[in-house]
From TrEMBL:
GO terms for biological process: regulation of autophagy. This is Mic1 domain-containing protein. Residues 320-512 form the Mic1 domain. Pfam families: RMC1_C. Residues 111-131, 243-263 are annotated as: Disordered. One of its GO terms (cellular component) is late endosome membrane. Signal peptide: none annotated. Coiled coil: none annotated.
Length: 537
């Protein structure tokens, strides 16, 4: 490892706390703090080599490293801020601005009791101290790999979480934020919601088409990758899985039982890790389990020959957590997890489907933006990205394009979109062309032709009748044996023309084409009408 040498010492000094080994995206990295050069040097471990991957700047004399959802958190302890990095991308620029670590829902009545573990002192009353306020980055904090903090002075174990909303709000580079959110798995549902919100916001803000197109391309590419790997369908199955309302209660276990028992029952979380202290090396066992009573949850910690016990009440309004606020970055929450949050965390993809993009991005933007030309340009870019990834687009997006073009009376472009297959044929598209072409006959004709192209015989015959192509409707019905259209539609049109010969021809056609037509009330009614017309003439 390369380290800068201090002026008064010819050999660099490397302490144990200056080396951090982590796993990110399945890769093993080692980070070494160079306090002289104020650099955090990164090395990646391969099977047969260790390769330096660059370095990151540090701004504090004391630095620690955590990993949450494959995001590297560099704690600048002196400044009490955290800088986030995503090692998946080639750039070593931070994901966002430095963010503080804050408390959410701080427990104000927590008490920590300290007592020796020797049997001689079991009958003595424990000394109790009130800890009404938890200090951030105190000297008693020990950062445990990958995302835990052991507070030995208070007897608490914290779990670090990311506030994705705060991270996304602290960066103005929307495409980079979307790429970051699409790779998140622990809170995939929240990441998806943020992606949809960001995409909708930049459209409402009328950002340049190139910026929005880049954002949409990221969402489409991520969805395509999730489809190919099967993660998207797995996520749908997880979302539909029921959440159990019953929580199993278990009595707390002591540290010795935690070391000997490697199988944890449901409702109990056990963490066994090695802790290196200045004077000794010991095994630390931390156990969190649901109490049989409703009073609270106990956290037990055993370090060396001392035992620390802290009783906490994890009620709905009194839950001790260590998490970001809206304006904060990384936070921490207790190891105790809610079942609903655990179910949500099982959804491991934030991929956004094209139908969701239409429902939550284009649809609301159409209602609020008021600029059809701008929105059409964005949807065309979206269709281009989907075509490159060979993703099917649902008809509702094409219907929206037709509505926007017709609203701006851009019928010539609409015709080119249909001819060049930019808008894929479908029944919904055909009916929208008929609707939008009420004042433009060529557009209406495109809708009629699309119904015929799709072999929708019944709908095609009806559209011919409604648009005055009666003889063509009869010929098409006879050629393709379309018997689902009500005979009265043909007869009403013929009767409305006041032409007895046409009415007689239609009656004769229906009698030959549909043998059972003679026994219907329509045959008797219109035969009587035909006789009256012949008598009056």
């Amino acid at each position: 490892m390369l380290m800068a040498k201090p002026e008064g010492n010819s050999m660099p000094v490397l302490a144990a706390e200056d080396v951090h080994v982590i796993t990110v995206y399945g890769r093993i990295y080692s980070f070494q703090v160079d306090k002289v050069a104020m650099q955090l040097r990164c090395y990646r471990f391969y099977r047969d080599a260790v390769v330096q991957q660059g370095s990151l700047p540090v701004y504090s004399s004391k630095v620690s490293v955590s990993v949450v959802d494959n995001v590297l958190l560099v704690h600048q302890v002196d400044a009490k801020v955290v800088i986030l990095y995503d090692l998946f991308v080639d750039s070593r620029a931070p994901i966002s601005a430095p963010l503080p670590m804050l408390l959410r829902g701080q427990h104000r009545g927590s008490q920590a009791s300290f007592q020796p573990s020797s049997k001689a002192d079991e009958n003595s009353e424990p000394e109790q101290t009130n800890d009404n306020e938890v200090t951030l980055y105190k000297d008693g904090w020990t950062f445990l790999n990958p995302d835990l903090i052991c507070d030995s002075s208070c007897g608490l174990l914290w779990k670090i979480h990311l506030d994705l909303e705060a991270v996304s709000a602290s960066s103005s580079d929307i495409p980079s934020v979307l790429e970051f959110l699409q790779r998140r798995k622990l809170e995939a549902i929240k990441a998806k919601q943020l992606c949809l919100s960001l995409a909708r916001t930049i459209i409402l803000e009328h950002r340049p088409v190139s910026v929005v197109a880049r954002a949409l391309d990221i969402l489409v590419t991520s969805y395509s990758h999730a489809i190919k790997t099967g993660n998207y369908f797995k996520g749908i199955a997880m979302e539909k899985s029921p959440v159990s309302d019953t929580q199993h209660a278990h009595s707390p276990r002591n540290a010795a039982d935690g070391l000997s028992n490697n199988v944890n029952t449901r409702g109990s979380v056990k963490i066994n890790s090695a802790v290196i202290t200045p004077n000794e090396s010991a095994i630390q066992s931390l156990s969190l389990s649901d109490s049989e009573s409703d009073e609270g949850t106990a956290v037990r910690s055993s370090v060396g020959n001392k035992s620390i016990t802290s009783a906490e009440n994890f009620g709905a309004n009194d839950q001790l957590s260590f998490e970001q606020s809206r304006s904060a970055g990384p936070g921490s929450v207790p190891v105790d997890a809610n079942n609903v949050e655990q179910q949500n965390s099982e959804v491991n993809t934030a991929a956004v489907s094209p139908d969701e993009i239409y429902s939550f991005v284009f649809g609301p933007a159409d209602e609020m933006a008021g600029d059809p030309d701008y929105l059409v340009a964005l949807i065309v870019e979206f269709l281009r990205s989907a075509s490159v990834e060979k993703i099917r687009i649902y008809p509702n997006t094409y219907v929206l394009v037709i509505q926007l073009l017709a609203r701006g009376e851009r019928y010539a472009e609409l015709g080119l979109f249909i001819i060049d297959k930019i808008i894929e044929p479908s029944k919904e598209v055909a009916y929208q062309l008929l609707e939008s072409g009420r004042l433009h006959r060529p557009t209406r004709k495109l809708g009629i032709d699309m119904l015929r192209q799709l072999n929708l015989h019944h709908d095609y015959v009806l559209s011919l009748l409604q648009n005055g192509y009666h003889q063509e409707a009869l010929r098409y019905a006879r050629k393709h044996k379309v018997v689902t259209v009500r005979p009265s539609l043909f007869l009403e049109e013929a009767y409305g023309s006041n032409d007895s010969q046409r009415l007689a021809a239609v009656l004769r056609f229906l009698t030959d084409f549909m043998p059972a037509f003679k026994s219907t009330p329509d045959h008797a009614t219109y035969s009587h009408i035909l006789a009256q017309l012949n008598a009056s003439s």
